[in-house]
Each structure stands twice: as structure tokens, then as C-alpha cells.
Amino acid sequence: MNFLNEVAQHYPDAISFAAGRPCEDFLDLAAVHRHLDLFAAHLREKFGGDEQRVRGTLLQYGRTKGVIHELVARHLESDEGILVDPEAVVVTVGCQEALFLTLRALRRDDRDVLLAVMPTYVGAAGAAHLADMPVLPVAQSDAGIDIDDLVAVARRAREQGLRPRACYIVPDFGNPSGISLDLDVRKRLLEAAYDIGLLLLEDNPYGLFDAGPAGNTPLPTLKSLDTGRGVVYLGSFAKTGNPGARVGYVVADQRVGTGADGGTELLADRLGELKSMLTVNTSPIAQAVIGGKLLEHDGSLRTANERERAVYRRNLRLVLDGLARRFPADRRPHVTWNRPSGGFFVVCALPFVAGDDLLAVCAREYGVLWTPMHHFYAGDEARREIRLSVSHLTPAEIETGLDRLARFVAERDT
Amino acid sequence: MNFLNEVAQHYPDAISFAAGRPCEDFLDLAAVHRHLDLFAAHLREKFGGDEQRVRGTLLQYGRTKGVIHELVARHLESDEGILVDPEAVVVTVGCQEALFLTLRALRRDDRDVLLAVMPTYVGAAGAAHLADMPVLPVAQSDAGIDIDDLVAVARRAREQGLRPRACYIVPDFGNPSGISLDLDVRKRLLEAAYDIGLLLLEDNPYGLFDAGPAGNTPLPTLKSLDTGRGVVYLGSFAKTGNPGARVGYVVADQRVGTGADGGTELLADRLGELKSMLTVNTSPIAQAVIGGKLLEHDGSLRTANERERAVYRRNLRLVLDGLARRFPADRRPHVTWNRPSGGFFVVCALPFVAGDDLLAVCAREYGVLWTPMHHFYAGDEARREIRLSVSHLTPAEIETGLDRLARFVAERDT
């Protein structure tokens, strides 16, 4: 994504529908101080006032799998209906480290491959690249994943002597697609994964940001439906906690072989062993920032993010309504887009191929940025689709940005 | 090191010469708050009071190579005489991530190997394992490294079709050996590395903890002597800053090929690209904790650690004097040890082989822990040597611990 960063740096005044950064309006350093103190007070109570243990937990080398694992488990129960043994939680340096550790643990040799719904999050492709694991694309379909294709890709891979180890998917408001899997698809996906013996890597950074009406019941995560330990659940606090803490986690309650002796261990423990060689442990100070926020809201990040949820809901509506006003179906330029029910992203199909070259033109001449969708595919061939991020713009920026986008599209479509 | 952790957990009341943790006496949460605020004030001044930029730098996704790179460069000039472009600094999640990133960048295929002075730090061996890079041992010798052996190992590897990419070494108060390279050896090592086209990975976690008399001039780092960009310098703030921040860095000012197009880039930029797939960026909150401490002491961690330096100096003296009193040269049991001039570690040779089994006996029956040296070698065969860490014990614990060790050795040596 270096090219995209360069464009963004080159045109700092352009309105950016490109970056998927969380809303900054409610971040402040005072909260960091407060959350640190809250977590320290929690430790003080837990350790019966033993200041040396409090200090040792917060400021010394510490437990490889983390020190907020119990709070993470409580949050998962409260917000996601996921019941998990805290020992199966590994707190990581953002979800990115969780992804890498999981793939590195699953990879034994060159025959191991990852399946991923294409288009896919660039971080997943990056982690797979770093772990030397080829990625086999699975078709997306309007349902979020083409399950028949998943089964076919896995079968073909096995016929070629490969070992499909897992399929990576974002079931809620996917990045980049914005698509969510409906309940029936979730259940069928799980059954298919059990049938063909494939782990599902469920990445859920946006699940709390459903834009439905108040009181709307969000769809259950794959992990909460997983009765067969077929799902490794990847979590991030970058959008719901604090992006500056760089804290994520993985729930890995599977049993895996330890190697020569024929024994088994928890996958989470295997990930911990790998983590000890990668980053040793996640900063307990950074963990405390998240831990304090979890404590402040009694484990519920849904509650903690009411204001953020309202911003994202408003922005998604403004972008969808704004697109509809600017691109009526019966007039040129002919632009179509999907209608996600939450999350950060909308995908538009333009009437022409929109690659990096056109992005540069659009940034320079029209002052608006977006992400060419081809970056989320294995190949490099430019496509007609672009991704719009709605997460960190003001209403005025959205309106001006869409005006500029509409002018750009109209003037190219001649 | 799981076995060692288990022993330590099993005998929490044993006196531990095993863990190499830094002294905790001067760590406190108030300093974390203060350092955060100091760094925020620094950003406020730098950004002319633009609170949004301050907040964005501290609490949002951020620059992959880090936000305290300029302060790190100032510290390196002030404390180590190393002049470096801040762009060549990558701030990492502890030195462990710096190690992994460097090895992962150097590895192109199965022919790439790492050389390392044996015995070697387990974290270096672990990072190499994770990066799928075999480690070829280089003999240590009393000088810290047998340079003739280094040259011979590299030559033999090349004859076998392998590509020795770098040699890992801790030139100051090595872990586990405690040995430091003298100035002449440093210069000869650099010349040899230039001659045979091998990078040196200089890891320097203990360099500030020389135990010489006040006003003693420490030996120059390899990097400060490096006129040929032959040294990648690995730094840690775990001992000099705050272990709970998990912040380290790597100085990588070499030019490397970018691949197909025949261009070159700074190795630091290549490491940044890999980091974007591994941990995205190091927590800016954690970086701020270190940045604030650097600001508080005008970039000098030598000054910031005067109290810690005094503790380590005292402890090293107590252990060396205490060994001398308990194991006179002319009497049994015959125990020998080296006499490091700083750092955290002393290596003792016992009159018998001291492996994990004897450590368990010693922990259970004598209440004292140490590290069997075989853990720092590639093989698994137990040896007579043990490593004693002096870093986080009180004088009373050292005396009692050495009494227990002496009783253990005397009772086994019959």
C-alpha cells in the first residue's frame, strides 16, 4: 500500500475516502491516564494491595499470552456471546500480530496454503506473505462467500498435494467489501468447514458498528455458533479501544499436536511459544490502556462506543444517500454501489477502470482520495471498483468529497 | 525456556539467579504518567500547539517506522557516539521484533544462514527459528569471538552452497557469557566482516551497565566504529527505559536491492515494509513512555540510569566477591567463574555436569535457581557451566542465594 500512502502524503488537503482509520473525535490523552489508573486499581484489588505485584505486572516483562485475557473473555461474553476460557486468549500487538502468529503456527512446510475470500484485507495477505503461505482465492458472491467455491478450491488444492489449513474471512461488514454474511450463510459455512476439515479464521474488527436501528440484534459471530472448535477468532481493539495502544488478540481453543511425543496442547499455548520469539509479550502498559477502558464499561465495548457507533452510522447513511443523489440510476455516469448495513466501507463500481493512475489524477485535479479495489485482489490488474471509507470524515467533508468524486466521474465518463 | 519458567513458577520462594529481568526498584506508574505528558508536551511544541496532530500522533494509527526515531538518534549520539540519520531507525516491539524483522529481511531462501557466537542469546536463536534461518555456531574464545573461526565457518558455508548473511553478536557484557570484546578485537572483527562481506548484527542491551570506576570510558560500539555500513545495530529500552513499554529499535542504514527493478532502498525502509505486515506500528503510547524518559534526561539514558547502574555494579561485585569467598581456588569443590566488567551475567563452571535435572533438585532442595548453560547452545547436551543473573536481587538475597548454591555444590561434589 506504499503507493496509496504516498498519494495521501502528496495531497494532504485532499478529502480522503481512502484511509480506514477510526474516528478520532473521542480520543484523548486524559482517557489514557484514567484507563491506566483504573487497570492499576483493578490489579491492586486483585493482588490484595501488593504494590510490588501491581508494579511487576504493569511495568516488568510479563506473561507471554497477556495480562488482560480475563477482561477480554468477559468482553467477548458480554458483547459477542462468545464463551471462552481466558487461557485460550492470546493478547497480541494488534490483530496483525495475531494473524501472523496463527498463520506461522499453521504452516509446517511449503504444502500449507491459506484460503481467503477475495477481495481480501491487505493485512491478511501481508501476514500470509510474511509467513510464506500462499493464498488461494475463494469467490465472494453477493452472500459474502461462495461456499461451493470454497469446497471446490479446497478439494482442488488437496488433489494438487497442497494442505489447505484455514480460510480467512471477515463475516461482519468486511474490509474491503462491506458485506455481511447472513445467519443461514454463517451456519452453512461452519458446516462446510467442519465437513472438509478446514479452520475458519474469523476476523471481526467492525462487528460492533452495525448501523441498524436502535435495539437491532447483531448477527452472531461464527465463533459464537462454533460447536466444533472450528473457528479461530481474531480481535482488534484498534477501532473499539484505542488505536494508539496497538492491542489485539486471538482466541485459539483448538488442541494441536506438540510434535514428536504425540501429545497435544492448546493452540493458544503454541501461539504463545511463537510470540515469545517474535515480540516476547505485548506491552502491559498498552494492555492496561485497553484493560482500563474495558473495566470502565464493565466489559462492554458496545456501550463504550455509543458515540463512535453514532458517527459511523451517520457517515454511512450520508455516503449512501449522497451517492444516490449524485448518481441517479437512470442517468449517466452509470455508477453502482453496495449498501452495507454497518462498518466502514462502501464499494462503488465506476463506468471505467479506476486504477492507481486515475487515483493520482483524481487526487491532483479533484482533491479526493479513494482506494482502487484491485489492491485487495491477488492480481495487479486495475478494476472498475473503488472502496470508499466512511469512518473518519465530517458530514461537510463527505458532501464536498462526494461532489468532487461526482465531478471526477462525470468528466472522465465522456 | 518453558522448562525454566515452570521451575521458577513451581518454586516461587527460591532465590533466582535465573531470570535476567531488570531491577524494579525505580519503576513506578507515576513516571509512566509523567513521561506520557512530557512527550505530549514535546509534540505540542513541535506541532505549534495543534492538538489534533498531537492526538493523532499519540493515539491514532501511525508512522510504521515509529514516532520517537529522532529522540532515539539523539540518544545514540549522546550515549554511544553513534551518528545516524533518524530515517535509518525503525522503532520496534522490543528488540525481539527488530531481530525477527532483520532476519526475515535478510532471508531470501533456504540457502540463507545466520552465524552466531555460541553460546548465544536464546531470543536470537528463537528469531532465527521463526524466520526459518539456520544458525551456524561460531566459537566464542576468551576474547568474545574467535575471528578465525568466524572466517572459516563463513567460508565452509559458502563452499556448501549456503549464503551466510550476518553474524549475531553481543559485544558488551554478552548474554549469557558476560564477556566484552576489547577494542582491538572489535576493530579486527569489523575488518574481517568487511573482508568476507558479512553483516554484523550488534545487539547492545547491556552496554550502559559497565561496572568500571566512575568516569570510566566505555568501549565504543561496533556501530560507532563502522565506516563501511557493515553493522546493523539492535537496541532495547527494556533495561534502560521501561520493560513494560516493550520498545526497542534497529538502526539499518545499509542500501539493499528492491528486487526486479534493480533499484535500491534503505534497509530500514525494507524493515518498515515487513513491519507493516507484522505489527503495523509500535504502540505510540508505549513509544511516548520511552520518548518522555529520553526527553527528561536530554537523550542520555546513561544519566537516566545512574541508580540502576549503581545497583548492577554493586550486585556484580557482591556476586564476584561472594563466589571468591565461598569457592577458594585451592579447595574443593573446584568452581571457576569469569569476571565480567559489567552487565547482568556471570558464568560459573561447576565440578559436575549441571543440566535441567540438577536445576530441579537445586530448586527443590536448596531453594536457589540458575540457568543451565546448555540452553544457550544449539545442542541439548548438559554442560558444567551455569549462568548467574545478578540484575534484580537484593544484597541479602545474593548472600543467601550464594550460601545455598555453595551448599548444593559441596553436597553434590562428593
TrEMBL record, chains A, B:
The keyword Phosphoprotein does not apply. Keywords: Aminotransferase, Pyridoxal phosphate, Transferase. It holds the Pfam family Aminotran_1_2. InterPro entries: Aminotransferase_I/II_large, Class-I_PLP-dep_aminotransf, PyrdxlP-dep_Trfase, PyrdxlP-dep_Trfase_major, PyrdxlP-dep_Trfase_small. Residues 56-405 form the Aminotransferase class I/classII large domain. CDD domains: AAT_like. Its cofactor is pyridoxal 5'-phosphate. GO terms for molecular function: transaminase activity. PANTHER family: AMINOTRANSFERASE, KYNURENINE_ALPHA-AMINOADIPATE AMINOTRANSFERASE, MITOCHONDRIAL. This is PLP-dependent aminotransferase family protein. It comes from Streptomyces fuscus.
